[in-house]
Amino acid sequence: MALPRQSEDFPSWYQEVVKQADLAENSLVRGTMVIKPYGFAIWERIQEAFDERIKATGHQNLMFPMFIPARLLEKEAEHVEGFAPEVAVVTHAGGSELEEPLVIRPTSETIIWDAYSRWIQSYRDLPLLYNQWCNVVRWELRPRLFLRTTEFYWQEGHTAHETAPEAIAEQRMILTDVYQDVVERVMAMHVAPGHKTESERFPGALDSMTIEALMRDGKALQSGTSHYLGQNFAKAYGVQFQGRTGELESPYATSWGVSTRLVGGLIMQHGDDRGLRLPPALAPYQVVIVPIHRTDDERSRVLEAAAKIVAELGDLRVKVDDREEHRPGYKFNEWELRGAPVRLELGARDLDQEQATVVRRDTMDKSPRPLGSVAEHVRGLQAEIQRELRRQARAFTEEHTIRPGSYDEMRSFLVASGGFAIASWCGSGECEAKVKAEAKATIRYLPMDPVRPEGPCIVCGDEGVDAAAWARAY
Fold this sequence. Notes:
Number of domains: 3
Helix content: 25-40%
CATH class of the largest domain: Alpha Beta
Low-confidence stretches: none
């Protein structure tokens, strides 16, 4: 089945890519999904890259239960208010009504800080640098596979620190040295880091940092967040420690997370009208060899040559697609749809000429290569394709980022989902709300470091205090 064109129906294109590339499907409960093997293989490699960096920065993995007593959630008022519409509550179990309702975790700050009240007694116990990989439930009214689901999979880091500067440094380090590093270097995406406005912050946070990625329909995707929580949760859950002076003090906290939403971002930032374009670092198969033959003798000869190439490719992830029920043309289209970075076409005629045909998925360039050097060439293409996908993602973002000269220009650009509009902002919630109402766009990020904007607020004309990046978003 042919894919819709991105330019004509981007949402349908996305849904069909997820379906036809066999990444995921809707499950029995509305808003939940089954991640299929090919999609999960991509997520596993994303997960491994994050996990490696999280551990390298001194954090340890642990695991907390998914059931949280409702009374814990009620201790931090701002937090519970922010999550109230999304919380799923268990009231019956074991054939009877529970004495106390249980919340299925929407995030774990509450149960973790309850535990920290027992784990932290002295400044010598700090910092606590912990992370968990788990599923969470947030009741989603408008679900979309990977992007917004009622149940999703992620990691959530929760740290406790002796001082505010230590916690703030942790928040920033996670965003730039872990999240941005993986998304740009491993996923070959381009993201913009920055701070959220007060209205867009995580419930209970004093500051939220984000990495925002621009999709090919001009909408932004929040791709990872890191939060400085101050002492809010420590005080709500009675966490105190004996400080260096002997006085009781409250620790400072951070929390941070990325999720399976990144698989959706990968699809929408790299994909084209043919389907996925996967960076080699994440592709389940970095090379797919398609044998072409008409007779049994040719088949044996071609498969023998394919096996030799596989051996020469060493530790690359290689798939020899020797399915007899499908013709080569079908396989070409399927692996283009599924985003395999390199395809090798190998037939009896190719062997007669001692060559194989190499096809790059990122550029669709097709060229013959001598059999004696094809493995070396294909190995070299892996880094080249990785770089090219990242270059294209950066170029697309830059091409779809404007600095409008007037509010009307910005509003028209945003209504058309043109991309990022960076302009001076006075800092008022009224101006923020006006753009949201008239253009369905929000401030996606403010600069990582304070930047004095040029000119007055683009919305109201008052003095500008920050350079804000507006966009419509998922």
